[in-house]
Amino acid sequence: MTGSVTAADVRAALRELANPADAAHLRRFFKTGPGEYGEGEVFLGVRVPASRGVAKRFAALALDEIDELLDSDVHEDRFTALVILNARFAQASKPRTFDDAARAAVVQLYLAAVRRGRVNNWDLVDVSAEHIVGPWLLDKPRDLLFELARSESLWERRVALLSTFAFIKAGDASTTFALSELLLADRHDLIQKALGWMLREVGKRVDRSLLTGFLDRHATNMGRTALSYATEHLPPEVRAAYRAPRAPQ
Q1: Which residue from 83, 84, 100, 82 is spatially nearest to 92, judged by alpha carbons?
Q2: Is the pTM of this model over 0.85?
Q3: Which residues of 114-152 are buried (b: 16+ CB within 10 A; e: fewer)?
Q4: Cα angle vertex 42, ends 36, 45, to 5°?
Q5: pLDDT tens string 108-152
Q6: How many Å apart are CA 169 and CA 130, to the nearest integer?
Q7: In this structure, are residues 2 and 60 in contact, taking their beta carbons and an 8 Å threshold?
């Protein structure tokens, strides 16, 4: 789609796809009940492939309109905004269209949304952090990730971990290990899963011996969920040894 498009256009397109039965399912799946991590989250009931289709249609959405969409109370609005933002960053990163100022503007907008609590569920973090923050920091100092990892916000901590997926794909496990050590005692389930997942990916994509070396040093202090994820692809006997009964968590 070309021409002047707005956040209102995206919202209207998503609402045409709304499904009340799917919305009810998504409210349960994303833990929106009282006291749960997604408490109060609003869903239309638009599935991910359909949201991605809308994002593709409205790829020309201006940054200020994306920012407006990120301030929506509706989950699918924010998800779609992030998919558009990913594409904007990717386009500005291609050799033929490289535009570092445009990349910086996307990162600035994204981090502002993270810090004001608009990237506030695990799928929103997972669809965006490795595609925006991670690539941006590949050739830069990574102090930002340690700042995020020390945040009281669950979502900022998860952004820190998931951003390192870009480094892992580039063959660098160092920041993943450093952040994992920093967050080793964090027992929130969504941090446990992210930590274990990133460690598992180190073993798959970088070097299994790096993973087992980390586990040799830290397995006895890891939460069971993180350890289960991290060892998932190890040989059965190795996995069993790391998961053997340990000190109380």
Answers
A1: 100
A2: yes
A3: beeebbbbbbbbbbbbbbbbbbbbeeeebebbeebbeee
A4: 115
A5: 999 999 999 999 999 999 999 999 999 999 999 999 999 999 999
A6: 10
A7: yes
